[in-house]
Specification:
- There is one protein chain.
- This protein has about 290 residues and is mainly alpha-helical.
- It has 2 domains: about 10-60; about 70-290, MetI-like (MetI-like fold).
- Helix content is about 75%, strand content about 0%.
- The protein has helices spanning about 10-15, 20-55, 60-70, 70-110, 120-135, 135-150, 165-190, 190-200, 205-220, 220-235, 245-260, 260-290.
- Helix 4 packs across helix 7 and helix 4 packs across helix 12 (about 260-290).
- The chain is flat, with a radius of gyration of 27 Å.
- It starts with 9 loop residues before the first helix and ends with a helix.
Length: about 290
């Protein structure tokens, strides 16, 4: 018989305290505390948001703000066009993200190599990250987007003068420098003994990096990587300065035609539809890494 009086053999195996035990009482008390905390948090949030909404709605300029930024008719007219342009943002974001992950990891591996013969590559990697992190992303979009076609090295109509490609290239160069440093921090955080153990069992340097060190480093830097990609998803809008008809550019055109800022609100909502889930995923990932719960 179970010491707490539960004769069921599966009670212990299930991982739950038997009914009537002190463990069950503590679990019930925690659930009551959690429910009470959730109710208090919900009530306080409702009060704060309600107060802020009341302040805004009762302000003297609310009617003008509503008509200028939150016009339902303008929103309905402009949203389909803005949504069509947003798909370009999504596709460009996904393509640039893959390129950044690969290029950033390669640069980080180069910067962590120890062979004297590879010093020129380490130096080039250091210069790459220092320079490209020091240039604002919007300025890099200008330099690549308008500077590369000006060299006249490529024929008109080729991929290398396409503004979407050039914008994606500029974003890849900028963000790969940041991501390379994130990867490098993860690689340096892997204990040196992991590499030595891998070499001791017969793996080569390349195999040790591929099968032992790099997987551990990537797991360690998951949250900061995801944080960088949240920023990248928003910065995709910068390619609009080169002319592509993406969500922000279309929203600007609609805003000028309607003399109303509601199309910009529509574009902002589309960006939020992607960044908010990513932000919550980041929070969940970080809680999982630290073992904490909210």
């Amino acid at each position: 018989m179970d010491p707490a009086g539960d004769e069921r053999p599966g009670a212990r195996l299930a991982g739950k305290p038997p009914p009537g035990s002190r463990g069950a009482e503590r679990a019930a008390a925690r659930r009551r505390k959690d429910r009470r905390g959730f109710a208090i948090a919900a009530a306080s949030t409702a009060v704060v948001l309600g107060a802020l909404a009341a302040i805004v709605v009762t302000s003297p300029g609310w009617d003008d703000i509503r008509n200028t930024f939150f016009s339902t008719s303008v929103f309905a007219d402009s949203f389909p066009a803005v949504l069509d342009g947003f798909w370009l943002d999504v596709k460009l974001f996904l393509a640039v993200e893959v390129a950044v992950l690969i290029l950033g990891l390669l640069i980080a591996i180069l910067r962590t190599t120890r062979g004297p013969a590879l010093f020129p590559l380490r130096a080039m990697g250091a210069v790459y990250t220092d320079v490209l992190r020091g240039i604002p992303t919007i300025l890099l979009v200008y330099l690549v987007g308008f500077g590369l076609p000006a060299t006249m090295l490529f024929e008109r109509g080729s991929l290398f003068v396409d503004p979407i490609f050039l914008g994606g290239l500029a974003l890849t160069l900028s963000y790969s420098a940041y991501v390379a440093e994130v990867y490098r921090a993860g690689l340096n955080a892997v204990p040196r003994g992991q590499r030595e153990a891998a070499l001791a069992v017969g793996l080569t340097e390349t195999q040790a990096m591929r099968h032992v060190i790099a997987p551990q480093a990537v797991r360690r830097v998951g949250p900061p990587l995801l944080n960088d990609f949240i920023a990248l998803q928003k910065d995709v809008a910068l390619v609009s300065i080169l002319g592509p008809q993406e969500a922000f550019r279309i929203a600007q055109i609609e805003q000028l035609e309607a003399f109303n800022y509601t199309p910009l609100i529509a574009a902002a909502l589309l960006y939020l539809a992607v960044t908010l889930p990513l932000a919550r995923l980041l929070d969940y990932w970080e809680r999982g890494q630290s073992g904490r719960t909210i």
